[in-house]
Backbone:
């Protein structure tokens, strides 16, 4: 999300994970290019990057799951804008069905085998490719842009079917960064680099403790009571 520092535009990045050792890490950067997450994640991370369809994430090596909420929102907007076009609504509905069927299948198979997951993934993948190919080369068709998106990210739409516990959206990140958005609207940002660093460091600590169901006050008190390491003379 955008963040102003000393009146200059920049960006607050959020990196979040779920689970017992959940992390909420926020960092300021002037850039919104792929170099920021590439630097923070490094070259040895082992997880899945769950993001929207912002093109900068395409350059991050590793495994990806794209956010279905963003795709469904764009499908809804397309359907609303082209409601008079006879081919748009059925196509949008067919794409939506893939997402619904994936979740229905997961709900009906609480402990599927790897082979079962692969079979379901292959079916969804194949049908998504078919829907993409339907209009991807019809450049004057209203569905062309989203059809090309299906093909461009065909292997990153249904990783949540293959991987237990992997979300199909980046709602966790969206919710985690929301307090910073509210803070920015109230304060306008920070007045100095030190102020930005302090604010985002405190946000990282407090929100990480809260995500781990720890008492932020007690954790902060414990941290303040630790002896400060000093460099040898």
Residues:
């Amino acid at each position: 999300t955008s963040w102003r520092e000393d009146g200059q535009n920049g960006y607050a990045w959020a990196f979040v994970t779920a689970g017992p050792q959940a992390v909420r890490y926020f960092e300021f950067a002037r850039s919104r290019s792929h170099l920021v997450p590439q630097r923070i994640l490094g070259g040895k991370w082992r997880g899945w990057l769950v993001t929207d369809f912002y093109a900068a994430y395409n350059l991050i090596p590793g495994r990806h799951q794209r956010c279905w909420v963003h795709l469904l929102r764009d499908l809804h907007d397309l359907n609303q804008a082209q409601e008079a076009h006879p081919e748009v609504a059925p196509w949008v509905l067919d794409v939506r069905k893939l997402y619904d069927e994936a979740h229905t299948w997961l709900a009906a198979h609480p402990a599927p085998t790897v082979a079962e997951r692969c079979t379901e993934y292959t079916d969804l993948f194949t049908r998504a490719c078919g829907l993409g190919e339907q209009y991807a080369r019809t450049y004057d068709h209203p569905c062309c842009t989203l059809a090309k998106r299906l093909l461009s990210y065909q292997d990153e739409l249904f990783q949540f079917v293959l991987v237990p516990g992997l979300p199909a959206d980046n709602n966790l990140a969206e919710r985690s960064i929301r307090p910073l958005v509210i803070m920015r609207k109230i304060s306008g940002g920070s007045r100095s680099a030190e102020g930005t660093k302090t604010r985002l460091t405190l946000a990282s600590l407090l929100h990480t403790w809260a995500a781990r169901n720890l008492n932020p006050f007690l954790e902060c008190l414990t941290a303040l009571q630790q002896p400060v390491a000093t460099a040898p003379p």
The first strand starts at residue 2 and ends at 5.
